Amino acid sequence: MCQENLLYILKSVKFLLVTIDKFILIVYNPFYLPVVYKIGIIRMAAEMYKDDILNRLKALDQHADLEFDGEGRFHVIIVGGGALVLRNYISRSTDDIDVLEADKRLHGLMERYDMNGGVNAHIFSFPYNYEDRAEPVWTGEKIDYFTASLEDIVISKICGGRDRDLEDLEEVVKDIDWELLDNLANNEEELSLISMSERGYLDFKACYESFKKRYYPCKD
Q: Edge to edge, what strands does the sheet with 97-101 contain?
């Protein structure tokens, strides 16, 4: 019984310290405004830059460490503009953090920290083996965070075709591994999800060839 009481006290102290930590972040960082655990602080949407995204990742990690104490680790794969911001590929802000892959148990918590877990609905815009190329970005007490590779993100943004996606692509072309990107764009296995829709596949190929023609570096 004494051991159980001690464990309860330690968990309570840990929760209190984490809550204080989050309060300090909110006071000293005006961009950091998510809901903090279950204490009722109202979340406000805000433009997020790299530090703001990292603050949210750390907050989710600490929350998950409390919520799922004693359970195994989680891994989260971030995509979209948030991933490009974290990797310093683009300098603009983002208004949410797109998560392509995360344990379902985290989905309710992610919403509190401006993380969009609904991106897995767009899995058909990504190469099949994107997980193999995921790159670690930050490791917490409970969660290992990754971003999809730049080339996988480029493929997905070409599929998306939104104006903002195309603007992002203009900023990252200098960092692209063109050999890898070209392999992904022409590999039947990697495109197996995209090619499930013949129209979608044809549209992607046309957009990719246009993108490559415009941005592929000229050889001397």
A: 115-116, 97-101, 74-79, 143-147, 135-139
Q: Is residue 23 part of a domain?
A: yes
The residue type at 192: S
> How many domains does the chain fold into?
1
> What DSSP line would sit under 146-200, residue for residue?
EE--HHHHHHHHHHH--HHHHHHHHHHGGG--HHHHHHHHH-TTTTTTGGGSHHH
DSSP β-ladder status, 74-79 and 143-147: parallel
Which has the closest alpha carbon to 41: 112, 110, 128?
112
- In angstroms, the CA 53 to CA 92 distance is 12
CA 70 to chain centre: 25
Q: Which phi-psi region, left, alpha or beta, contains residue 11 (left: φ > 0; alpha: ψ -120 to 50)?
A: alpha
**The pLDDT of residue 135 is above 70:** yes
In a domain, 198, yes or no: yes
Q: Give per-residue pLDDT as tens, 152-187.
A: 999 999 988 788 888 889 999 999 999 999 999 999
186 belongs to a structural domain: yes
State residue 155 phi and psi, 5-degree precision.
-55, -45
Q: Is residue 128 part of a domain?
A: yes
Q: Does 89 or 6 have the greater pLDDT score?
A: 89
Domain span at residue 98? 2-215
Pick the residue with more confidence: 56 or 117? 56
